[in-house]
Specification:
Elements lengths: L4 E4 L5 H11 L5 E5 H7 L2 H7 L3 E8 L3 H13 L4 E5 L4 H9 L5 E5 L15 H11 L3 E3 L5 H10 L4 E4 L9 H6 L4 E4 L1 H4 L4 H13 L3
Parallel strand pairs: 1-2, 1-8, 2-3, 3-4, 4-5, 5-6, 6-7, 7-8
Helix pairs in contact: 4-5, 5-6
The protein binds 6-hydroxyuridine-5'-phosphate.
Length: about 210
């Protein structure tokens, strides 16, 4: 069975990041790269990690349409498989990401995993889901530490890919997220900060596979 695990390599040491990517790349669905890695290593890290696995650029794109399209084109040029965009900036901004994504899958953030998300993003989830579907997103980022919310979003958009962070250090369980309807589970620190990232990948993969 293909892995449903996405590992967030939020490492600010390039050698460590590439060493872990080389070890786990063939056993995960994708590696997610966020600003910590890009700011340290530059966009070339996208191409380097792509040698080992798919790369999802977690750029949380959140600007005017023109700026969003420039960011998206760069991720595409560097070989990314997917890109994560915010959606609260509105239809035109998210649509610019979709239109410039080429073959990349676009995931829009519709609900988040941290306490502060209760202030602005999470009260607007339903509208963000509806608009993201209209804009042509392939799927959503939704909180794996809130399985009830994942299952509600699953019902709103049965055909879209749901990717869930918030698992491990943030308290969520991979099995709960999958049973609630997630397609992919994102895990960062519980893998990369452990003494044995390969072993952790194996543990998460078997928890996920036994929950499908
Ligand atoms: P960790 O498993 O170490 O908590 O990492 C989670 C990853 O998912 C981080 O890269 C974070 O930026 C991202 N993420 C999140 O934790 N919650 C969200 O709501 C959206 C995210 O993209």
């Amino acid at each position: 069975m293909e892995s449903k695990l996405v590992v967030a390599l939020d490492l600010m040491n390039e050698a460590d990041l590439l060493r872990i990517a080389a070890k786990i790349g063939s056993r995960v669905f994708a590696v997610k790269l966020n600003w910590p890695a890009i700011l340290v290593s530059g966009s070339k890290i996208i191409r380097e990690v792509s040698r080992y696995s798919r790369v999802i650029c977690d750029f949380k794109v959140a600007d005017i349409p023109n700026t969003n399209s420039l960011i998206t084109e760069k991720a595409l040029e560097m070989g990314a498989w997917g890109i994560i965009s915010h959606s609260f900036t509105g239809y035109d901004s998210l649509r610019a990401v979709v239109e410039h994504a080429g073959g990349m899958s676009v995931f829009s953030v519709v609900s988040m995993s941290h306490p502060g998300s209760a202030e602005f993003i999470n009260p607007n989830t339903d509208r963000l889901v509806e608009m993201s579907v209209r804009a042509g997103a392939a799927g959503f980022i939704a909180p794996g530490n809130n399985p009830e919310e994942v299952s509600r979003i699953r019902k709103m958009a049965p055909e879209k890919i749901i990717m869930t962070p918030g698992v491990g250090v943030q308290g969520g369980k991979a099995g709960d997220a999958i049973r609630a309807g997630a397609d992919l589970v994102i895990v960062g620190r519980s893998v990369y900060a452990s003494n044995d990232p390969e072993k952790q990948v194996e543990i998460f993969n078997s928890e996920i596979n036994s929950s499908v």
